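step: validate -> pass
step: tokenize input -> pass
step: predict -> running
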Amino acid sequence: MRHYKYNGTSDAGTIGWIMQRVSGIILILVVFVHFFSMLKGGEAGMMQVVTGPIAAFGVFHTFNGFKMITDDYVSCAGWRAVLYGIYWLLGIALVILAVKI
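step: predict -> pass
step: emit ->
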């Protein structure tokens, strides 16, 4: 398993690790807001949740999780860079789509 783990500095992923936990907690709260807004506001209430900053937390949480998995299991620096680029492009595209909705 040693060659699967990216060997960076000991604190290289600390900020990402903390942000993953913070955004996860925020997303748990959002689930309750989502259900409440669907009950009270219908589709219009849900659209306010989807197009707001909550969508950005969701996108961040998802792609930061992908990055953590990539760091752990992709040993080639070139492939890691390609995957990071794909993550950035998809993340930006999702944020743009969420704002346009």
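step: describe -> The first helix runs from residue 14 to 50.
step: cleanup -> pass
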